[in-house]
Amino acid sequence: SRVASWDLGLGESQVLSWVISHTGYEAIIDDLAARKAAKILQIPVRGTLALVVLAKQMGYISSVKQDLESLIQVGLRISPTVVTQAISLAGEDGRAIADIYDPYRMDTEFPLVRAAHETPSESLRDRNDEVLERIYIGRRFKNDTERLEKLFELYTKMTSQKAPAQKSTKRK
Fold first, then answer.
1. What SS3 class is residue 45?
2. Tell me: the pLDDT tens digits for 114-124?
């Protein structure tokens, strides 16, 4: 097989082989040699950090920083610089999202952001959109208007939950 010639670990080889035979999916791998092989074989890749940030964005976890610290404690080997970038991307470092998406700073300060948005193919972008839409409403959106309405509904719900009403302390 095309993957066997790379002499990767068994797990990485199996993941890459599976993605080759199932187009429209991404390989979830962190191993540098496997990522290099995937790039040459034109296999789309996402790593653990991307999954953790995505889980935060989708509301499955509350803290990228805490989850990454837990993963590092159990053996995830990752550069502190990359961890810092992931925490920034998740908005947990006090920066505004506008700072992270600033085109003049993105390439130097937040290269992971640029990489995350440079999807290798239109079919993969469409597959990613389909997965997210099915998570949100159980089917594809009918049009952009329906998509925007749902996103605004979710945003309104999210922002209204951040500031719970405080109990009155007035005496009767």
1. strand
2. 666 565 555 55
φ and ψ of 148, to 5 deg = -65, -40
In order, the DSSP letters of 144-166 are HHHHHHHHHHHHHHHHHHHSPPP
For every residue of 61-101, DSSP letters joined together read -S-HHHHHHHHHHTT----HHHHHHHHHHTT-SS--HHHHT
Q: Which two tokens stand for residue 100?
A: 């992270």
In contact, 87 and 64? CB cutoff 8 Å: yes
User: Does residue 52 contact residue 68 with C-beta atoms inside 8 Å?
Assistant: yes
Q: How far apart are CA 10 and CA 59, in angstroms?
A: 33
Task: Report the distance separating Cα 74 and Cα 24, nearest Å.
Answer: 31
Distance CA 81, CA 50 (A): 15
How far is the C-alpha of 105 from the C-alpha of 108, rounded, in Å?
6
Local structure of residue 58 (DSSP, 8 states):
T
Task: Please compute, for residue 159, the number of CA atoms within 13 A of its CA located in the half-sphere on the CB side.
Answer: 6
pLDDT 10s digits, 61-84: 888 888 888 888 888 888 888 888
pTM above 0.90, yes or no: no
